[in-house]
Amino acid sequence: MKNYSFAILKKLTFILFLVTIISCSEQVTISKNAFVIKNISIIDPIDGFQSVKHVVVEHDLIAMILDKNYKFLANEDKIIDGSGKFLIPGLWDAHVHFSYDKNLTSSMPRLFLAHGITSVRDTGGPIDYVLKAKEFSLNEPLKSPNIFIAGPLIDGSPNVYNDSSPSFPLLSIENKDIIDIESNTLGLIDKEVDFLKAYEMLNENQFLTLTKIAQKRKLNVTGHIPLSMNLFSAVNSGLNGMEHLRNLELSIASNAEELYEERIQMLKNPNGLLGSTLRSSIHSKQRMSAIDSVDNNKFEEAANLLASKNVWQTPTLILYRSYAQKSHLNPSFLLELNKLPQQVKQKWSNEIAASDTIIDKSSVRYSNWIVDAVSKLHKNNVPFMAGTDTPIGYLIPGRSLHRELEILVESGLSNLEAIKTATVNPATFFGIENKVGRIKNGFMADLLILNSNPLNNISNTQNIHAVIKNGHFLSRKSLDSLLYNNHD
Questions:
Q1: Long-range contacts of 341-345 (CB under 8 A, 24+ apart)
Q2: Res. 8: pLDDT tops 50
Q3: pTM metric for this prediction
């Protein structure tokens, strides 16, 4: 019996040795339509770190991921040496506005790609204008990130972004009643928007009509909690996402009911204020007092609801931080202006030179509160996406997303969780998580090759060696030419 067991053990050992020899000697021939990134470490947002692999890209897809022991046959010009480098999925900025500054629109695609942003979510602009941006991305996929659009902000009356000033360009559509909501929402759906964005001046009936239409057409609704509602009613009525955590504090204050009644009276707008002025007056009156009286039990209740309903948060922390710290006054930021087209650079430079240097304590306090709120929501398993609101607040397209990742980590997310917010999470929002945002066979080959490990330091997402867009390799030289092509 003993000898038999020993013989079996010897046979199993030999088979294991044979399998090892075969696996070590397996050979793959790389198609002439493909290229291979050899000896690179992979960081998948779900599976995490995987040391040295060979990644084969064919056409616009990841064709194979081979262990380092595999041999492959390929022409020398089809092999990219990834030794000592790190591969992550292409990044998303999940909150941008192509139409906010039309002098910058045509430069935004190149700036995104140069910073490794291969997909973006445009969260508000005139439908025909943002449709052109999306069509450009479809027709010229190597010159633009993938663009997903909401069309205009679906607002009530008076609408906020109504072209009343340069700070409030025409990003929204005014809806005076339910009939307007039905007509305008269905019109956007007919134009094949990818999602819908609800805004702050909607009344409750308008909001309910909007979410019912969206649910019937299987479209997500993100936006700001309408000032006529609270977080709980908005989420239970079908809100799928929140931008900037906007108006969260108004719903979780100890006196939230009193604040609500006060808002309802102010929204009657007896003085006929512009939408932007009316909204600002409500925020000025209620925001800071609300964060000073947050009820922790209500916060917990809100967090549990957001987690249970899987309501996506795009907090745009960099927007708050930049306003609070006046980051545009930093000399290192001023050098970044060289990436902008000359006309925009001059405009921003003039505005920055004329701006004051006084730090507003309330802005700092609110920015810090938002960071703390993100930390608490994250601990309650509320899902997040990384977005910036670029180019609002002098946020440079592309650059600002990397800063957003840094502040997300500061808020308590791990480096891998932060990467997840800018890769597979936005893909999940659109239901394409089985195609985009990961490093797996059959996924879209939108990828970043980094010189340093972002799991060690999230700032390493900025140390980009190359970008792969739709399976097309963009070298560091190519990225630099995009970065400083500021004559467009």
A1: 341/103, 341/104, 341/106, 341/107, 341/486, 341/487, 341/488, 342/486, 342/487, 343/103, 344/101, 344/103, 344/104, 344/107, 345/486
A2: no
A3: 0.92
